[in-house]
Write a structure and sequence with these properties.
The structure is a homodimer. Chain A is an alpha/beta fold. The first copy, chain A, has three domains: 7-72, Winged helix-like DNA-binding domain superfamily/Winged helix DNA-binding domain (Arc Repressor Mutant, subunit A); 91-164 and 272-298, Periplasmic binding protein-like II (D-Maltodextrin-Binding Protein, domain 2), CATH 3.40.190.10; 166-270, Periplasmic binding protein-like II (D-Maltodextrin-Binding Protein, domain 2). Chain A has helices spanning 7-19, 22-29, 33-47, 63-90, 110-120, 136-141, 207-215, 228-236, 250-254, 286-298, and strands spanning 52-55, 58-61, 95-101, 124-128, 147-151, 159-173, 184-185, 194-197, 220-224, 242-245, 259-263, 269-277. In chain A, strands 3, 4, 5, 6, 7, 10, 11 and 12 form an eight-stranded mixed sheet that branches. In chain A, strand 3 (95-101), helix 5 and strand 4 (124-128) form a beta-alpha-beta unit. At the A-B interface, helix 1 and helix 4 of A face helix 1 and helix 4 of B. Chain B binds a DNA duplex through residues 8, 21-23, 31-35, 37-39, 41-42, 54, 56-59, 278-279.
DNA sequence: CTCTTTGTTGAATTTTTTTCAGGCACTTAA
DNA sequence: TTAAGTGCCTGAAAAAAATTCAACAAAGAG
């Protein structure tokens, strides 16, 4: 098993695809464009496959290069992760588990869980991967993170899930809003209401499928904002309303910056779960252990993601 | 993300763990033991972690090296397999052209065009980019997509257009609507009618400029919904009426879920065109070729976006 | 048309890797 | 006890690989 390509070649492909031009890729990698030109030529010679077709001035990526870029991302992040682990290992910490939470960047719950983790497992270090480099699922597949906390049902080959908790959706408004005092809102209440969505794609079993569509009552779309924290701010200043997961709103609610109402009389709850690679599901695997402890911690009476 | 280690270092670790001694590992890799000794030293220096402890004669493997061996195996085989794949891939598709259609996510026409494309050009693969519907123009400029199919006249530096077809606007209603039987509607007919708009910004030469404004007859605004498919659903359940491009409505009309009337006695037609970057306009450029073929296909008697 | 931008080339140069030629430490066997 | 044998290490030299430099070509912009 002797690879044709070197890590440099993978970095090269990644950088060129990312920037679209050799000059910028060169700057990104801290070398001259000439060096990259040579590297690219060499990579294509070794593979005997054109990676980029040179049209006039611009580079166009071939499917081969696109495919390799995906592999490169996976390999490069896998390796740097391993290097970091090894260095940590040397410093006495046995294991690092990397964790990321879908969408919300509220980490108020973290100290509580870390405390819990310490009492139940020694030598495991948690690392929160905040950057939304990519969506959490591919992050797990790429080994960029080990556990993704996500809502909804995840079914993907190679991935396993552990249920964590059920969380109600909350219709949030400015405190001065006409519906602010309501214990719950129905479809008819929100017709024509300015509404801020998080995703562009309606997910099943969320507000679309269970509030708007059944009663044919649609709010007025105001904006799509992919940062829940920003949505909260917009809602607080009465620029619109939204539906978000309750656990991440506790602080804003407690501070009175926004108010929330249950969605429909019965409420809509969404399941949250921990997603990890199936290969890490071994009984004694620290990743699996952290996931199990996370589930256990969520079920404790005075713990869980809702802590304020 | 610049890895500390090189693939050679990974091979080294793998080989030493496999054989247990540097001499044999060297033979396996086809180099002298001395070379491996240097390599190993360098790897340990970079990581600042001992990989093997030298017990006089034999080597003892540290946990770090053991861990890295697992990673090495994974990375090396991953890369080799990807290289294999890519070399095979070379035989097939040469080019990928990414295409997106403004607003509508009706792709009923796609199979017909792909068949046509196959007869006229080899080795070009079409990729439909659903994401950039709302703003395909910047999608083209950003190089997320190569061709955008859009209505209206596009004049922007760096972009070129090819005319594709002319499409009439259709006033759509629920089948039970009072105007359902009309062959066409005038401004006076739709005064006060609940109306769902797609865009927030009125575009020139559409219903605003050519139906509402000339006769000063305005419908009653019901909502702005940025998904034509959702508009069709709303109209079907008689929650409003709308004006949309006829080609994307063929299915819903054929199924009788909605009915359509010509807009004004003479009708309003809107030109649709393919937008691509000027730099891709070269005669032999596959992107330009796809755009030309798209135009040609549109002019065929039994082809085009209207196919059902 | 000229100027600028972008990528390419081949030779020169620098950096990295490998080999070579000894060493050193320990083991084994005479 | 010592000579021969292993197995790895070391530093200098050599080889190989990667990078820079400087000049150049082609296409786009003004």
């Amino acid at each position: 098993m002797k690879p044709l390509l070197d890590l440099r070649h993978l970095q090269l492909i990644q950088a060129i695809i990312e920037t679209g031009r050799i000059t910028d890729a060169a700057e990104k990698l801290g070398v001259t464009p000439s060096a990259l030109s040579h590297r690219l030529r060499e990579a294509e010679r070794r593979l005997d496959v054109p990676l980029f077709t040179r049209m006039h001035k611009r580079l166009r990526v071939t499917p081969a290069a696109e495919y390799l870029a995906v592999v490169a991302e996976r390999i490069l992040s896998d390796l740097s992760r391993a290097e970091e682990d090894v260095r940590r290992m040397n410093a006495g910490i046995q294991h690092v588990v990397r964790l990321s939470v879908e969408a919300y960047s509220n980490y108020r719950w973290l100290p509580s869980f870390i405390k819990f983790l310490k009492t139940r497992a020694e030598g495991i270090d948690l690392q929160i991967m905040a950057g939304a480099r990519s969506d959490p699922l591919t992050g797990v597949l790429n080994r960029h993170i080990d556990i993704a906390v996500m809502s909804g049902d995840v079914a993907q080959p190679g991935l396993s899930t552990l249920p964590l908790f059920e969380d109600p959706l909350l219709y949030i408004m400015a405190p001065s809003h006409r519906l602010a005092e309501r214990p719950f809102v129905e479809g008819s209440d929100i017709v024509g209401e300015p509404f801020i969505t998080y995703t562009k794609v309606p997910e099943p079993d969320r507000e679309f499928a269970r509030l708007f569509r059944p009663t044919d009552s649609y709010p007025k779309w105001a904006a799509t904002v992919e940062l829940p924290e920003a949505i909260v701010e917009l809602v607080a200043s009465d620029l619109g309303t939204s539906v978000l997961s309750s656990w991440a709103l506790q602080t804003a609610l407690a501070e009175g910056r926004i108010t929330g109402a249950q969605v429909t009389e019965d409420g809509i709850t969404v399941p949250w779960c921990a997603v990890l690679r199936t290969e890490d599901m071994g009984e004694d695997d620290p990743i699996h252990l952290v996931a199990r402890l996370l589930a256990e911690w969520c079920s404790l009476p005075d713990a869980g993601f809702h802590v304020t």
